Amino acid sequence: MYTHQKNSPSSNVEWLMPPALIAALGEFDLDPCTPAVMPWRTPKYRYTLDDDGLSCPWFGRIWLNPPFGPHAAKWLDKLRRHGNGVALIPARTETRMFFSSVWGHADGLCFIKGRVRFHYPDGRRSASCINAPVCLVAYGSRNLAALHGCGLGVVVSAGKPVRRREGRP
Ligand SMILES: C[S@@+](CC[C@H](N)C(=O)[O-])C[C@H]1O[C@@H](n2cnc3c(N)ncnc32)[C@H](O)[C@@H]1O
């Protein structure tokens, strides 16, 4: 199992999600990882690197677009434990992070159609797309409903695996 992919967007932790994509998911209470200045309105509350959003308390409905790279798994694990929110992560379904926090843990996924062009912290749109497909991961039934209603891609359930009983086919 891979931990991350060579062509992941890990070289830049400041990729901002296009605001229209977040808006399609409804209102969030907290974004735990944001640059010092956001070029547009985001959830009511947010943390920055100075706060260290990973160690701060999380509350309400979370929007999570974690700093890409090896620490992304810790952020996603915290959202899994919190149980209420949506995360944007690379759609690397074979990775350790997917198995520890998505498959069998999340309520559902939305594989975003096409490649996403992110924004820089000054609001400019990047000229190129990141070199990876991305997906949204929902924790909690309200967030799964938001994925179904967002129209951004194909939604699949990532529900708990069904265990076969001994002796049954
Ligand atoms: C991929 S960007 C996401 C920005 C924004 N949340 C969005 O969705 O558009 C990740 C952000 O996390 C910030 N960050 C990195 N480490 C952090 C930490 N320990 N606590 C809070 N924010 C952090 C980075 O500065 C960067 O702005």
Helix/sheet category: alpha/beta
Low-confidence runs (pLDDT<50, min 5 residues)? 1-11
Strand content: 15-25%
Number of strand elements: 7
Task: Using the CA coordinates, give the radius of gyration.
Answer: 16 Å
Count of spatially separate domains: 1
Oligomer state of the chains in this structure: single chain
Strand order of the largest sheet: 3-4-6-5-7
Q: Any idea what the shape is?
A: globular
- What is the percent of helical residues? 10-25%
- First-residue to last-residue Cα separation: 28 Å
Bound molecules: S-adenosylmethionine
Main sheet attributes: strand count, strand direction, barrel closure: 5 strands, mixed
Count of DSSP helices? Answer: 4
Rounded mean pLDDT score: 87
What string, H for helix and E for strand, traces the elements in order?
Answer: HEEEHEHEEHE
Summarize the structure in words.
With 169 residues, the protein is an alpha/beta fold. The chain has one domain (19-157). The protein is 19% helix and 20% strand. The protein contains four helices and seven strands, in the order αβββαβαββαβ. The protein has helices at 19-23, 72-82, 96-101, 141-150; strands at residues 30-34, 45-48, 62-64, 85-90, 108-112, 134-139, 153-157. The strands form two sheets. It has a five-stranded mixed sheet, sandwiched between helices. Strands 1-2 form a two-stranded parallel ribbon. It is globular, with a radius of gyration of 16 Å. Mean pLDDT is 87; it is low at 1-11. The structure holds S-adenosylmethionine.
